[in-house]
Amino acid sequence: MHISENNGTFTAQHVTGPTNNMLRLKIGRGESQSFDVSVLPPIGACRHDDGLTVQEIALAIEAGLADANAALNADYIVKAAAIVENDTRQHGIYEYLTRKIIETAAARAE
């Protein structure tokens, strides 16, 4: 997994061979707010059509955010999210990537 940051927007890439995911989160601090999940154009020719909907991905992101905030005693929020159209859309990976992004942000803020 690789996590990078550019002006408060974090991108996590997780490629294991048969599965691949990219999650981009614009994060901040403060009170919880709603956010949109944008779908970026496909990368490559692979297709993974039986995955989660954008609404289900938003729920996975919210779950990962809640877990990370509880563990860190923090108040991170997601302002916007983006995924790639042809990623492997599984609930657990978006929770995991969200937690890792928030952990990375917290470590850089120390």
Report on this model:
By secondary structure, the chain is of the alpha+beta class. Helices cover 35% and strands 32% of the residues. Strands 1-2-3-5-4 form a five-stranded mixed β-sheet, covered by helices on one side. Helix 1 links the parallel strand 4 and strand 5. The longest helix has 19 residues. The radius of gyration is 13 Å and the shape is globular. The two termini are 22 Å apart. 26% of the residues are buried. The mean pLDDT is 89.
Question: Which keywords apply here?
Answer:
110 residues; single chain; 2 helices; globular; five-stranded mixed beta sheet
List strands and helices in order, with pairings.
Elements: E1 2-6, E2 9-15, E3 20-29, E4 37-40, H1 54-72, E5 76-84, H2 91-109
Parallel strand pairs: 4-5
Antiparallel strand pairs: 1-2, 2-3, 3-5
Helix pairs in contact: 1-2
